[in-house]
Design goal:
By secondary structure, the chain is mostly helical. Helix content is 63%, strand content 0%.
């Protein structure tokens, strides 16, 4: 990875460091790295015309995987790493709710889609099916209704779909530096000087 420019916001620098240090680790049992998965999700969000905060959420939706010390094969060992909670907690001290909430809810969105859209379950990769089991399986009807009322429901669903699609080996995306500019933009917009 190339040297990180010093003209970024401090939080952006933290994000870049995390990817530099941990981004080359395997993304679950998929054929992409954590960084490739994050870049693909952000790319799909950008291509869909998402707002900058949701593009940043797509980039950082699995930041919790970069923060814990569990092995890459934790799901195969029956361990749910609760990465959405770890990531949400890390983000809540740095970003606005439009970034935090879709990240915090992207696992719930998978559970929702599996309950509300049965064909979605058939689209899941084997590692995603395994993690679904560890994360509580499809939602109950009561959970579905409750989830639909969340103010970030639509953002979480969009993020979940990009998340599931972001597993393409060797897909060409913009570099991390391209998305770092979105991170800076969102941080400055939320905290104008």
């Amino acid at each position: 990875m190339t040297a990180v420019p010093v003209d970024h916001q401090p939080t952006t620098m933290d994000v870049l460091r995390l990817f530099q240090e941990r981004g080359q680790s395997q993304y679950g049992g998929e054929s992409v790295t954590q960084q490739e998965h994050a870049l693909q999700a952000a790319y799909f969000a950008e291509q869909a015309g998402a707002k900058p905060a949701l593009i940043v959420a797509a980039l950082l939706h699995d930041v919790g995987h970069l923060l814990h010390s569990l092995p890459d094969d934790a799901p195969e060992q029956g361990i749910d790493d609760a990465h959405e909670k770890i990531g949400g907690n890390w983000l809540k001290h740095r970003f606005e709710p439009a970034v935090i909430e879709p990240v915090r809810l992207h696992v719930a969105a998978k559970r929702y889609l599996c309950a509300a859209t049965p064909e979605y379950l058939a689209e899941l990769s084997p590692p995603s099916i395994l993690s679904l089991q560890l994360q509580g399986g499809p939602m109950s009807p009561e959970e579905v209704e409750s989830f639909r009322s969340h103010p970030f429901f639509e953002s979480a669903i969009a993020l979940r779909r990009w998340d599931e699609a972001a597993k393409v080996p060797e897909l060409k995306t913009p570099e991390l530096e391209h998305y770092a500019r979105y991170v800076d933009h969102v941080l400055v917009a939320a905290n104008p000087q």
